[in-house]
Amino acid sequence: MDIMNIDIMDILMYAVYILIFPGLLFTCVFGLWLAGIDRKVVARMQHRKGPPLAQPAYDFLKLLGKECIVPDGAARITFLAAPWLGLASLVVTVLFIPIGGLQAFGTGGDTVVILYLLTIPTLAMILGGSASGSPFAGVGSSRTMVAIMSYELPLILIILAVGKAAGGYGVTFSLGQITLFQYLTAPFILDWRLVPAAIAMLFVIPCEVGQHPFDVGEAETEICEGPLVEYSGAPLAVFKLSHAIKMFVMTALFSALFLGGVTTGMLWLDIVLTLAFCSVVTLVCMSLLHAISARFRVEQLFKFFWTVVSGLALVSLLLVWFC
Amino acid sequence: MSYNVYNVYMHFPVLAIMTLFVGAFCVTLAGKHEKVRNVIAGCAVLISFTLLALLVKPVMIDGNIITYWMGNWEPVEGYAIGIAIEVDALSLFFGLLITIAVACSCFYSYQYMKQDDARGSYFTLYLMLSGGVLGIVLSGDLFNIYVMLEVMTFAAVGLTAFRTWNPNAREAAFKYLVVGSIGSTCALLGTALVYAQCHTLNLAQISAILPGNLNPTTILAFALLFAGFGCKSFMFPFHPIAADAHGAAPSSVSVLISGVFTKTGVYGIIRVCYFLFRSMGLTSVQTMLVFIGCLSMFVCVTMALNQHDFKRLLAFHSISQIGYILTSLGLCTALGIAGGLYHAINHTLFKGLLFLTAGSVLYATGTTYLEKLGGLARKMPQTTALFLIGAFSISGIPPFNGFYSKWIIYQATFEKAAGGSIGYALVTVVCVVTSVLTLASFIKVGHSVFFGQANPELGNVKDPPLGMRVPMWILATLCVLTGLFPDLMLRYIIGPATAAVLNSVGYIDAAMGAGYAEAHLADPSLLAAPQLISIGAWQPASWLVLFVIVLLAVFLCSLLSRGNSARGLESDAKHAVFFGGERAEYSHISGGDLFWGFKHNLRGYLGFMSRVHTGVTNDYVLWGVTATAVIIAYCFVTM
To answer: Model ipTM?
Structure first.
């Protein structure tokens, strides 16, 4: 009888984790909120009034009701399935990231798993764009892939540096252990050896999300939103939602890697604190950069990430190893 | 441990090899009756697979090692004079992956080879190749391995040139023959030197006598054997011939050359390094293997990005994946070996699948040239789905199998870095970057073959017949299963094989009698503790949840799109693709146009690479000989 109860409770708990918190519902709401403050702040920095905070949510709801057109030349199934695949894998990614000490999947997420999971939404966008048969989408997909190649090198270097710092004499890929280590000592952002890695991460976040100076793949003014050019209606809404959620996932990852272990003792307060961190990181690395810079060209982007950003991350890795 | 003579399992390994060779001759006897030929070949590969599958219980799970003395010539006074077939978990592991690939590819070729002439000799060569490959991994005799290596190589050369009307195929076969003979020569010379030193050719006995007896002769023998088997695995710098051979051979044969043939090289390297010489404990040998692995990985993946032919591209990826396996095996930790072996079986599965999809594209359209294809997803939906499964697997997208093995490899390299030098952390970085570039080049294939703009010349193309689809679906299912249930794989398949790699004492004792290893081996301790400790966590079971979500989502979206895009039969402007005013035929984005930013920045390196790969046999022979010389020199300096 007991076992039965536990099983049902477990299933219910997982259902809550996956569907409500920190899964689907919560990430959607908070992601859209982050997108909202980003738009608002950028507008204020450019002396515009800006849309209301809920504008991304309005956009999303409105798009859901619009007609969905599948172009003649498109590979229909892939074209329609891609956005949902991206969304689902983003939601799964959130479950691996500790938010305020709460981790949905008990044993602790894994940085390499997250690294790979994070490529799936972008991959979905590339495939969807490619499947639409449009040349604009083809160019956009190609550029998005170059963006992945650009940020993956610094990202793995950052993960290795943090993994070494948190592992003590060993190494670790476990986010749970990384957070625990910071809880026992101090957040890594205060560790001078990891400051270059944190700065590198601040560049990786907007590139992974596809935010302004690094949005070569979508580049509205050049290639009409690239992979999204043929999308309309619900699939487009899902892509926009995924974009918003990605902001949350990446900033939450930053919080776990560099601001982890900051605790007040109360779970709900910790969660609020993490959300506050996420918002601050969003403002620093996305809104600020967006407002003050012009878009990189593709080859500049690649060069920048493989030299400057990777260099920063590599410095951290070497410092962690030898200091 | 010991088996009595009447135990039925003892005879299975030799029967598995015999069936294939006997099948090869029977196929010839069948003459012009195509059905009979097919039935004989199918029976041979199935029997062979079944015999090995039945050995999983006694060998993998119960941990026995089967020794079979041909003609019952057992060792006399501690000297093995007869030819032995010795099957431990490692041999069986390779045997299983070989027979799976051979069986799938065999059934695929029934339909696939229908368009060819001279089909009479196809299955003869095919079964000779399979038998040779299986003979190598199950044999317990060094010279026997060399003989099988030659059988395999010549059958493979014949099959590469099978489409004799294709000049590329003839040229590839020639290159293969010439460069491959460097490997064979090295292996033969190495075998002769070992025989001169140990007065025996039995692997187990050599493994007992040779370790700890390093003198200039044995060092030379080691270097030669290493180079010889390395050549068979097409490691850098022997890789260009692989590209030609895989590209020109019929796809069903490419599966064998890429998924199976190369594995014998890997198997040989494991036997030479971990057993015969037990030299894996030396830092210099580890460094050499990891270095060669990393070079193969990175050079071949960047070469693959430059290719314009589907199958050539796959060929370069195949060496790139072999690079992962060699790197991982070179770490000489339990985790590293497990990762390498896991990747070996995954590579056989997903590369087999990808070559078969390439074959289907060729079968349907008559070309594998990327620029001539496009938009096939609408016409070949099943092939597209299969390709995507293969592409996700090789790129290591979770939850497909490539992810898990790569993930173990990252852990193993990084763990090694923590225990030793920071250089291994850079190996992890190379592995990850290679993985991203792999993804990129499969995006390129996906875009230019299956998605992107449809080529109007490919009008009435359709999915291949059922006989070709079923083997592909089997491989695809295995790709998903091995990715979803890594715990079972590790417990029943990879774990025992990893333990076998580290347990040369057991291997020796099984053949030469208990206590032989202890009496002869200088240092009978294990190379590393056979424990698998992960430094991270991954629960593929949680992926079932994802699958449910994805299925729901796809279902939902198909509902939504049906409701929303009700439309007439005739196409209107609303449903036309936006070309921005250009005409469709002038705005094609082909495979060669992709990844400009990347190619532009690395143009120096990429240009250099394509200039160096001249395609001239003399150059490749020069590379091979130079590499052998460097390996020999390196071994003399550091061992």
So the answer is: 0.85
